[in-house]
Amino acid sequence: MAPNVKIRGIYTTALTKFFIDSGITIVSPSQAIAARFKDSVDMATQKTSDVDIGDLEDSQGIMIRGKSDHVDIVTGVIRENFTDAIFRMETHAEMNCITVEFPYLTKSRMDELRNSVVPTVFNHHRLRLINSRYVDLIETKELANHPEQRETVSKTLEKRLIWDTYKKNKEIAIDHVKLNGQVIALSEGEIIECDHKAKRLILKRKKFTGRHGYDGLNLPKQEGDYAVTEVTEGNFFYRHSYFRQDGRQIGEYYNINTPVEFYPDKIRYVDLEIDVVRWPDGKIEIIDEEDLNRYAASCHLTKELLKKAIETARNILR
Fold it and tell me: What integer pLDDT is reported at residue 207 of this predicted model?
C-alpha cells in the first residue's frame, strides 16, 4: 500500500504533481498547494503522514523521513524516474532518513513538473536558490499572463541572475560534491573567457591547495603551476589542462560528474569518481572506475547514472 506523504519546501509543487501522478496520496497540503490541486483525489487534509519530505539545508535536494518500508517505496519511485538523483542513507532505530541530492537533470525535470501545474521559467528551482523573490515576481507578473513567452522570459531572467554577473578576472568557486555528500572547495579560477551562447566558462586557476601532486597524473606540483579549466553547463564532464610556469603542458584531467550547474559565484556538480587523464605524450587512461562501482553498489546512484558515467569516460578515451 502506498504511503501518505507530506511535503514542504521549494520543490513542493513539482513533487506533489509527481507523487499524485505516481498514485501516492499527499496529506496536509498548504493552502496554495490545495488550491493548485483542488481536483485531485490523491490529496487529503485530515490523514496523518507516513513519510515527511522537506528541503535540505542548502535546498540542493530533499530529506525523506519515515518508517523503513514507507521510505523505501517513496525513494524507489524517485530512483526510477530521476536519472542523476544522488541518494545518501541513514538509519535511526525504526526511522529511516534518506537525503536525495537534485543535480542539474533532476532540477530540470522538477521545473517541467511544476510548469505543468503553474507557469514556470526554465531553471526555476536553480534560479530560486539565487533570488527566490525575484523569480516569483517575474513568474507572477510576466509569465503568468504570457505563458507562451516562457522561453524568452526564462532566457532574460537567467542572463540577469547569472551571466550578467560574469566579468573578466572575476573569481569563480568550484563546489566539488562527493557522492557521500562532502563538499570539497577546489581552488577558485579567474574568468578568462565567457561565452553566454555556448554556456561556457574558461578559468585560469593558480591557487592550488591540498595534495603535493596531481591526481591521476602522478606528477608533482611546482611553484608557478597553473591550470586552464574549461567548463560547459549541462555537460557530464569538464577539463583541466595543467601547465608549468613556462607554459609547458604537463597533462589533462577530465572530471566525470553530474551535469554542471552555474551560479553567480560558483559552479556545482556531484563528482562521479571515475576520471580520464591524458599526458602530453598522448597516453590516456581511465582511473578510479572501481570507486564509482563501489558507490553504485551502495545504492548512492541510479543504474542509468552509473552507465552514463562509464559511457562518458569511454567516449573521452576514444
Answer: 78
Contacts of 55 (CB under 8 A, 6+ apart): 8, 9, 10, 11, 61, 62, 63
Cell numbers at 14, concatenated: 513539482
The amino acid present at 185, given as its one-letter code, is A
* Residue 16 vs residues 26, 37, 110: alpha-carbon distances, Å: 7, 9, 10
Q: pLDDT digits over 287-302, tens only?
A: 999 999 988 888 789 9
| 208/205: higher pLDDT | 205
CATH of domain 166-317: 2.40.380.10
Intervals of CATH 2.40.380.10 along the chain: 166-317
Grid coordinates 584531467 are at which residue? Answer: 253
Amino acid at 211: R
- Residue of 15, 132, 116 whose CA lies nearest to 62: 15
In this prediction the pTM is 0.94
